[in-house]
User: Which sequence fits this backbone?
């Protein structure tokens, strides 16, 4: 990396630099593989992966250090569409996407595909409704847009509150994930692992802000996608002779269907909208589309994603980079259902109805690790029998075999008969996924506090130096609080992550979209719309989760934006119509962000510089 | 006040074209996000290469459509920008 030589040199050679990096990483994996064959212990290999990758991220973070505001907040707006797409991919795909999603599909079958659709399709909305216009607006944060379009600090503060509620639970979950992965592969206690992870997060972001996070996220994407694809490509080649698991798992699906008949499993893997008894259910049907809708709109409202499109050189590249983002995300998401199918086939063929004494090595290894896989020979016949098919939270209960969703990705290298070095690679991938998302979220929160609250509201005359000091201090404070909360092992954290999507969707989507697409939207309308939408969503979440309120229409509270979203739009629309239309100047401002070329027509003439 | 790059009439026409593109893609997004996945029960009776079609569309087909829609939006909007002379000089 020749960042210190001048960014021109670095940017001109991005392709070469990242190709060299990728080659170096593959070489490093091969060397470790050779060392493993020579008898180097697994523990050393685990350490090597965790420490080397964190060191590389830290090094990129160090090289990207900056004392300029626009570098710190928006990476100097020089990130080409292709690389911004990769960075967004890493920003987006969290520990949950990397480790848990395939396992969720393994357990839930078709019904789990709501997550696959919901976590990809939202980018279409980002691309057509928001990204290009937010890029043209060209400031630092999402609340910045609200504060400008809806003239005043009320909308800005509301934006920051929604951002904080949505992003904070999310970052706690990521820190938790980092703790789990680090403690498992380094063999150190969870609480210490959390703080090791915290250092990993901070070294990426503290010195260089968005610039550092961008270039580390590109590096993290490369590792996470290699780690995700390698075990499955290998297994697909082994089983079906074609190295494209996304194509060959159709065969696995038909084999699964045949075995389901044989084992009398009533909940079929590919059967849509089934309840526990395997029957079509309208409740499942409605929850499916409600979840897809909430996750998609949530995607298009989460500030840590939207702010990535502030970093491209121009509006055109912002649009293109949405395409690259979803392409890079697609690579992982269309592989996850293949993971689920291959793992299920393995369980049905190599574990069910097999003698306990001769189970495959991966089952024996994982049954010794803290409760993730348990075998209980209830009838004492020495054979693992399938006596039921029940979803028990994040685990699948087959009667004599219980299997946790997180095993599916983590054990795949062993299922495929690959050496331990590939397990280390997968751990490095999971860590990359968790770190990159945590960094994006951390910046989104800390930047909103330092830019929107401190600079815009408390001390608009603060010097650049002072603003950067405040930004970095807040970064550390938020990270410490997140780690402290994660250290208490809050239960149901994954549930809360899913809430983030509904909260962001209810609070931010309507004011952002209507602010751009409907000039008549007034400040009062938007503010009341945000309050009403976010309020309804929060009410439904809290009342159903903590106070036992019955579900409305059977819709689970993970999809509470289904109620918050229409309320937000309706209130914004109705109140806007009865309040004084936005000034001519404000309409000119909206016109100017709709067109890629030309200057922004700031309300009130000259605009104070950032 | 900053100078707008288009006259009010041209601006209107530009936004009309942009909106039409937006609604077209939004309709296709709706088709691949909801209509096709929710038809999974009947679609599943068709099996291609082992994949029941309803499952395939929700697991892969719609995702491919999303990627295509995003790139298509970018290129179609670029054409509109060029036609109206409002694309940015890189």
Assistant:
């Amino acid at each position: 990396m020749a960042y210190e030589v001048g960014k021109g040199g670095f940017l001109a050679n991005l392709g070469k630099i990242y190709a060299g990096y990728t080659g170096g990483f593959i070489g490093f994996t091969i060397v470790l593989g050779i060392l493993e064959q020579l008898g180097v212990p697994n523990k050393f290999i685990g350490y090597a992966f965790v420490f080397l990758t964190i060191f590389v991220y830290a090094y990129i973070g160090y090289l990207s250090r900056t004392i300029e505001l626009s570098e710190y907040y928006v990476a100097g707006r020089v990130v080409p569409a292709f690389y911004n797409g990769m960075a967004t991919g890493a920003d987006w795909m969290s520990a949950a996407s990397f480790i848990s999603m395939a396992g969720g599909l393994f357990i839930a079958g078709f019904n789990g595909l709501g997550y696959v659709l919901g976590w990809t399709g939202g980018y279409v909305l980002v691309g057509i409704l928001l990204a290009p216009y937010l890029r043209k607006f060209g400031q630092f944060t999402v609340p910045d847009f609200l504060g400008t379009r809806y003239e005043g600090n009320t909308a800005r503060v509301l934006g920051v509150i929604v951002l904080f509620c949505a992003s904070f639970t999310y970052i706690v979950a990521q820190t938790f994930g980092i703790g789990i992965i680090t403690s498992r592969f380094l063999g150190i206690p969870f609480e210490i692992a959390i703080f090791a992870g915290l250092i990993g997060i901070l070294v990426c972001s503290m010195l260089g802000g968005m610039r550092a996070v961008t270039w580390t996220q590109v590096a993290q994407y490369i590792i996470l996608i290699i780690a995700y694809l390698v075990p499955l490509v290998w297994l697909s080649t082994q089983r079906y002779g074609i190295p494209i698991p996304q194509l060959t798992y159709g065969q696995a699906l038909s084999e699964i269907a045949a075995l389901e008949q044989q084992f009398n499993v009533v909940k079929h893997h590919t059967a849509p909208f089934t309840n526990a008894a395997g029957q079509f259910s309208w409740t499942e049907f409605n929850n499916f589309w409600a979840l897809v809708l909430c996750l998609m709109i949530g995607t298009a409202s989460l500030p840590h994603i939207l702010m990535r499109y502030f970093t491209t050189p121009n509006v055109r590249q912002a649009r293109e980079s949405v395409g690259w983002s979803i392409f890079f995300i697609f690579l992982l998401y269309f592989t996850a259902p293949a993971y689920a199918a291959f793992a299920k086939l393995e369980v049905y063929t190599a574990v069910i109805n097999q003698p306990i004494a001769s189970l495959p090595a991966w089952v024996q290894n994982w049954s010794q690790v803290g409760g993730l896989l348990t075998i209980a020979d209830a009838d004492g016949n020495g054979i693992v029998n399938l006596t039921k098919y029940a979803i028990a939270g994040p685990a699948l209960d087959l009667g004599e075999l219980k299997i946790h969703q997180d095993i599916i990705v983590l054990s795949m290298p062993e299922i495929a008969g690959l050496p331990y070095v590939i397990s280390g690679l997968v751990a490095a991938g999971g860590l990359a996924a968790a770190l990159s998302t945590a960094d994006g979220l951390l910046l989104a929160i800390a930047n909103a506090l330092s830019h929107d609250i401190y600079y815009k509201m408390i001390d608009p005359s603060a010097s650049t130096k002072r603003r950067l000091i405040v930004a970095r201090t807040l970064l550390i404070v938020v990270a410490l609080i997140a780690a402290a909360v994660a250290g208490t092992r809050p239960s149901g954290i994954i549930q809360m992550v899913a809430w983030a999507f509904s909260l962001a969707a209810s609070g931010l989507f309507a004011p952002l979209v209507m602010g751009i697409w409907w000039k008549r939207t007034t400040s009062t309308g938007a503010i009341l719309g945000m309050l009403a939408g976010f309020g309804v969503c929060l009410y439904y979440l809290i009342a159903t989760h903590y106070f036992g309120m019955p579900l409305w229409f059977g819709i689970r509270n993970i999809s509470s934006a289904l109620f918050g979203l229409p309320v937000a739009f309706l209130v914004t629309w109705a109140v806007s119509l009865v309040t004084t239309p936005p000034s001519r100047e404000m309409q000119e401002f909206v016109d100017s962000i709709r067109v890629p070329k030309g200057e922004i027509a700031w309300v009130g003439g000259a605009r104070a510089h950032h | 006040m900053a100078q707008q790059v288009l006259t009010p009439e041209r601006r209107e026409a530009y936004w009309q074209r942009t909106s039409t593109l937006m609604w077209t893609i939004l309709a296709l997004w709706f088709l691949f996000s909801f209509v096709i996945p929710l038809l999974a029960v009947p679609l599943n009776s068709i099996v291609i290469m082992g994949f029941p079609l309803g499952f395939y569309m929700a697991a892969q087909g719609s995702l491919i459509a999303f990627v295509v829609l995003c790139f298509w939006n970018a290129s179609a909007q670029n054409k509109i920008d060029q036609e109206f002379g409002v694309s940015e000089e890189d």
Summary: Chain A is about 70% helix and 5% strand.
